[in-house]
Structures are given as structure tokens and as C-alpha cells.
Design goal:
- It is built from three helices and seven strands.
- The protein has 151 residues and is of the alpha+beta class.
- The chain has a single domain, classed as Mannose-Binding Protein A, Chain A, CATH 3.10.100.
- A four-stranded antiparallel sheet has the order 1-2-3-7, with no helix packed on it.
- Strand 1 and strand 2 form a beta hairpin.
- The radius of gyration is 15 Å and the shape is globular.
Length: 151
């Protein structure tokens, strides 16, 4: 996991923001949509938003797992995420301005789990400001932030 440089922990945060609308995490190798969609959607629709995304010349975007979402957070930092790399992030409303849906920070993950039978009934989401994870009974309605990884 990336850490703030001042923490003295290994793997200091390192992001490449040179491509418009995209952030590359130099520690994990994940490539992120810089700003989440500015509207709430169901978890299934969030996955479809990512599948339909054409950003930075790439069309292989997907909904990240809960662990991938959490990899953006430096818990020892008050605002959670790096506001330089990810402007408009929740709990850093100066850097991540936007409607309440965006600044509240709940973002869908692809992490689903069933409670009965084979069909998933629950999904996990992460709040960007503090890394708190919550399970939401589907369909629910939170934000999507897409990720991809070069082969």
C-alpha cells in the first residue's frame, strides 16, 4: 500500500497525473479515473459505467475491488486521498468540489458477496475520506470510480 512520504513507511505515494483525466499509481501500477462520476448509481450500473468508459484512449476500464479502492487511501492523512493526484475527493471538498453525492465519498467496489444462494445480495463500498468500508444491500446507490491495469 502507498504511504505518505513523511510517515517513514515503505512505498511512498507516487502518482503520474500527466495524462488528462487519469492518475497512474506508480506503487500499485493501477490506472485510475481521476474524478468519479458525479451521480449515484446502482452497483450493477457502476460496473456498466466503467465498462462503457473511453478515457485516455483506453476502453478496458472496470470497477475496482475494495482492496484496490483502499490502496488509494493513506489513513494517517486527515483527508485520506492525495488531493493533488485526485482533485475533487470526498472529505477534501476544496480539492474535490462537487455535489453532495460526490463529496459524501461512498464509492462502489466490484466486491460482491451472496447472503443466500448463488446471486450476490450485498456489495462493498469505500468512503474515500477515511477508508471506512460498508456493505450495501443491492441495488443501492453510490458513486463509481473506474480503474484499469496495463497488461
Amino acid at each position: 500500500m502507498p504511504n505518505t512520504p513523511s510517515s517513514g513507511l515503505p512505498h511512498p505515494l507516487s502518482y503520474d497525473t500527466s495524462v488528462e483525466g487519469i492518475v497512474t499509481d506508480n506503487v500499485t501500477g493501477l490506472i485510475w479515473q481521476k474524478e468519479p462520476a458525479s451521480f449515484s448509481v446502482t452497483q450493477k450500473d457502476a460496473a456498466n459505467v466503467c465498462k462503457a468508459l473511453n478515457l485516455g484512449g483506453h476502453t478496458d476500464w472496470r470497477l475496482p475491488s475494495r482492496l484496490e479502492l483502499v490502496s488509494l487511501l493513506a489513513i494517517e492523512r486527515e483527508s485520506g486521498v492525495d488531493s493533488t493526484a485526485f482533485p475533487a475527493s470526498p472529505l477534501d471538498t476544496e480539492a474535490f468540489p462537487g455535489p453532495e453525492e460526490v463529496t459524501s465519498g461512498w464509492t462502489w467496489s466490484s466486491s460482491l458477496f451472496p447472503s443466500m444462494g448463488d446471486e450476490p445480495v450485498w456489495a462493498l463500498a469505500t468512503r474515500f475520506g477515511d477508508g471506512f468500508t460498508w456493505d450495501e444491500r443491492l441495488p443501492g446507490g453510490w458513486l463509481s470510480r473506474c480503474a484499469r491495469q496495463d497488461p
